[in-house]
Amino acid sequence: MAFLKLVLLGYLLGSIPFGFIVGKIYKIDIRKYGSGNIGFTNVLRVLGFKRAIFVLLLDAAKGFLAAWYGYASGGEVLTVAGALAAMAGHTWPFVLKFKGGKSVATGCGIILFLSWKITIIALLIWLSIVFVTRYVSLGSIVATIFVPIAMIVTGKPIPYIIFSIIGASIVILKHSTNIKRLLDGTENKLGARVIVPKGRSK
Question: Any idea where the domains of the chain sit in the sequence?
Fold first, then answer.
């Protein structure tokens, strides 16, 4: 019963669509602009840096809190259960008809709880790739692949390794269209802004 409660709470927490909510505050449906995604990158393109950072931090906090609550409830296995539930909630939120984000920020919050050292290295990888290529998606994909490798190499607990593999698989699966555009050379670069009808984002 406690396990089901943890999973439900994790999913509900993950399902809070902060990108969508912030968009609504500024009188736009973020899903109708840019890539249609509710995450950091699309919010950045549509609403600008400050609002995107706000969404990024809140989405990361969902993952961190879910992992923390799982650990407080009973250790590593429950940590992973809460973390995966939060990622599932963010990726497939019932409040948005199961069409959510790509779980990069939420996953980052989870990894921050599991290992702050791996998180810092992953962020440095992400920043370096984005700085050089200006492809946020490429940075996210490479940093995501790095995480389970780092978990294995540094000898993290088996539940954490299992989470990192499943979590990375979810993130990469959600980036399948980005991968195709990267291969085709049609992926949008960082800095490209989406034109929002006048007055809609004020």
Answer: 2-94+101-184
